[in-house]
Amino acid sequence: MNVYSLARLARSISRSTRIFTSAKSHSLNALQTRSYRSFGFGGLANETGQAFTDWKSNEGISASGLVPIVIEQTGRGERSYDIFSRLLRERVIMLYGPIRDPDATLVVAQLLFLEAEATSKPIHLYINSPGGSVTAGMSIYDTMQYISSPVHTYCMGQACSMGSLLLAAGQRGHRQCLPNASVMIHQPSGGASGQASDIAIHAKEILRVRERLTEIYTRHCKKKDESVAEGNERFAKALERDYFMTADEAFEFGIVDKVLENRALDEQSPILPSGDKPDSGK
Fold this sequence. Notes:
ATPase binding, 11 strands, 18% strand, serine protease, 7-stranded mixed β-sheet, globular, hydrolase
């Protein structure tokens, strides 16, 4: 085989590889799109209906493999943990990124496990999420209300859409927001196609969900001098469009109870293995 034949063969293989890669990519994109619900409580949505996030699909911390390992000295020698398992020992759960069924399953499992370990001790749920599926978020919400352990919530970065509902669902007096975090509430969004009667059924369901979400926000965020009807009216109006709030505005709106600038302001923050709280550095 001469040099020209080898060159033609290399170009042919290269073209075949590109075609195969492109076909594989389209198949993955189609699969990912189907995995998202057409009816959700997401943040901003792109043309595929997926919740908008700065991270690409399947490129979270775990998927990248960049999970730090920490070493701890014990009476039996050194023990190594991934950072999230070590935080779980301190009753800390991290909810980062879009809220989908797999993410919700992990959070629910951790909530149930920590309740079984110590019923009376608080669980600390840290949230940085643009929102996601209604049903996935509701599974976390219902579990938070179901378990005996109090759940303290913290907003870091953003708590939008379903993320804001989970933030508000924490134990009263222990719903915290860091000073530069953002909170956003809005009504559910979705779409339906098919016969007119099918579309009417879906429209009726999404209106029912909007009403239920309004009631949940009112239940957890109603002000002391406010009646239930007034609270429902206030949230129904706010949910009409994307309603963004700073940390201080979220406090005034009743979604959080505190704006934390340093750990010293959080009386029940997780402690270190030594039994001491971390130094706030101030």
